[in-house]
Write a structure and sequence with these properties.
Layout lengths: L1 E3 L2 E5 L5 H10 L26 H11 L3 E7 L2 E9 L10 H6 L7 E8 L8 H15 L3 E5 L20 H6 L3 E6 L3 E8 L5
Parallel strand pairs: 5-6
Antiparallel strand pairs: 1-2, 2-3, 3-4, 4-5, 6-8, 7-8
Length: 197
């Protein structure tokens, strides 16, 4: 658990899943009912097509193959940052283009953010990102790759377009730009030392 300003970061676990689900349901499952499962694949025990979104995600959490840093305001989850291994989160955008240029696959990737509509544009996504990096450090650290959007200077866009944050936010968190993939996505990387180091 990490405290940031008045907020607390907690990992997504069976105990915090109800708060995560309440946030997702408040926003109609987020992005058309995704329930933050788009980037996940099937597991040995759970096939995405066999369950509705909330049940699929809950099963992955119970199996220990769904990770996120949740930002709590009191008892309520107000944001999350999803992260995990490439095996947990294989479904990235522009996968062929990314794989073709990837000489050094990272053991961790950050794939999406979601912020409660009542807390947007207040730095909560950045808190979620820092929380995810802290949880990755606790899990042993290592290289982390992500695919934030690069916005034209002065351009504002909808939160749904920015499901993976912005290049500027990742640069402020110490990530290094590597390359572009697709029309507006970037590949950015950071090495996170283990928490005990």
């Amino acid at each position: 658990m990490v405290t940031t300003t008045s907020h607390v970061i907690k990992p997504l676990t069976p105990e915090t899943f109800p708060a995560w689900l309440a946030l997702a349901q408040k926003h109609n499952g987020v992005w058309g009912g995704c329930y933050c499962s788009y980037f996940h694949g099937d597991t040995e025990h759970t096939a995405k097509g066999d369950y509705d979104g909330p049940t699929f995600k809950q099963r992955l959490v119970a199996e220990g193959v769904a990770h996120a840093a949740l930002v709590f305001d009191g008892e309520d989850a107000i944001a999350w940052c999803e992260y995990g291994s490439p095996a947990e989160l294989p479904g990235i955008y522009h996968r062929k283009q990314y794989d073709a240029g990837e000489a050094n696959p990272a053991p961790w990737r950050i794939t999406c953010f979601f912020v409660d509509r009542d807390h947007r544009r207040s730095g909560v996504a950045r808190e979620a990102l820092e929380g995810a990096l802290h949880l990755i450090a606790q899990a042993g650290g290592g290289e982390v790759v992500s695919f934030p959007n690069e916005l034209a200077e002065g351009k504002r866009t909808s939160a749904s377009f920015l499901h993976n944050g912005t290049r500027a936010m990742f640069e402020k968190a110490g990530f290094t730009f590597e390359r572009h993939i697709g029309k507006s996505k970037t590949v950015m990387r950071k090495t996170v030392p283990p928490a005990h180091a």
